[in-house]
Amino acid sequence: MRDADKSVQIGGGRVIRAAEPGDIGQIRACICEAIDASPFYNAKFKAFEKARLNENVLRALIAADPWFVPVVMFKGEFAGFIVTIPDCGVLWASWIYIHPRFRQTAIAVAAVGFLVRRWDNNRFHKTIALVRPENAAAEAVNAHFGFKRVAVLPNHMFGQDYVLMERPFNRTIDVYDPPLDVGRLTMLRLKLRQALGRD
């Protein structure tokens, strides 16, 4: 998979494509919908997570690499998204979300498979996911693609337990991604680029 690729066919009418700045509003709305509808998180976590994954963060991720926030399509319809965040050679798989209308189509399995294939490219030591212990389906899909249960983290975030899952990658380069910059100056630069039609 070349970095220049903007979309990848994953069979059965499913496509995963690199996010574009124009997708931010839809991705952000879907993030809020996913968080609000989830039975696995308490109110404090939900409020925190919606504030954390704001439009500036999404814009900065897409500017750093549009594949950090790929969009999942099914037969031309927006079906879900993935949010990954680079951190010191580790890729955090923050959210893999498929809209309920498409959950019978195996898109979630295809999305996790894509995530593993895309990023096992010498750039990261491993990818990490935090899964609530009650979310057996997410843990099973991750395990299918080589994620191992490393630990149960009791009382980890906002008083809730989490399962830490990791999948090793084969990192060979000695250059690390810079920290994600969501400062005002960076946001101004990104908005200016967008206004000038360069994004």
What do you see in this structure?
By secondary structure, the protein is an alpha+beta fold. The chain has helices at residues 24-37, 43-52, 55-64, 107-119, 136-144, 184-195, and strands at 7-9, 14-17, 71-74, 77-87, 90-98, 126-131, 148-157, 160-168. Strands 1-2-3-4-5-6-8-7 form an eight-stranded mixed beta sheet, with helices on both faces. The chain starts with 6 loop residues before the first strand and ends with a helix. The mean pLDDT is 87.
Principal-axes shape call: globular
Give the biggest sheet: 8 strands, mixed
Low-confidence stretches: none
Task: Going across the biggest sheet, name each strand in turn.
Answer: 1-2-3-4-5-6-8-7
What is the mean pLDDT? Answer: 87
How many beta-strand elements? Answer: 8
Strand percentage: 25-35%
Total helical elements: 6
Query: Helices and strands: which structural class?
Result: alpha+beta
Radius of gyration: 16 Å
Oligomer type: single chain
- Give the N-terminus to C-terminus distance in angstroms: 22 Å
H-E string = EEHHHEEEHEHEEH
Helix content percent band: 25-40%
